[in-house]
């Protein structure tokens, strides 16, 4: 383990602990309303995403066999509207999750700073630099990993939606 080097990250020796997670969860409590709104937009986006197979079913079962171009156009327009809803919800979600995360980290830093100010100087004389706050480092790495996974999943959803749109456009051209 590297000690007292600013350019070398230390490996975490402790696994993630639910006890520490519950202790740190109190920082999220002031943001319950914002988190609830974000969860609502996630549910709304998922519901809108579930409409794509329904639109495809209607198009294949009734609009294409009947060669009803108007119905197919309306289905395509409704599909584009659902894509817009999904995109707006995704934008809202990413923006607000980022703000909530930054606010939580700001609150944690403030509390850590206050705690450090109350410690006696002898505390710092007996401990090596940089090894005092591993649980916060674990939480930061866990949060960073989670945000990375969420963004990767969001990118995949965008590609899936564009594939559905391309499919609908191909069907419209064939009729």
Key phrases:
5 helices, 175 residues, 0% strand, mainly alpha, elongated
Question: What does this 3D model show about the protein?
Answer:
The structure is a single chain. By secondary structure, the protein is mostly helical. The protein has five helices and no strands. Helix 2 packs antiparallel against helix 3 (69-118) and helix 3 packs antiparallel against helix 5. The mean pLDDT is 78.
Number of strands: 0
Average pLDDT taken over every residue: 78
Q: How much helicity do the residues have?
A: over 70%
Largest sheet: none
Terminal Cα separation, in Å?
A: 66 Å
Morphology: elongated
Our estimate of the beta-strand percent is: under 5%
Q: Helical segment tally?
A: 5
Give me the secondary-structure category: mainly alpha
**Rounded to an integer, what's the Rg over CA atoms?**
25 Å
> Order of helices and strands, N to C?
HHHHH
Poorly predicted runs are none
Topology at a glance:
Elements: H1 18-24, H2 32-63, H3 69-118, H4 121-125, H5 134-174
Helix pairs in contact: 2-3, 3-5
Concise synopsis of the structure shown:
The protein is mainly alpha-helical.
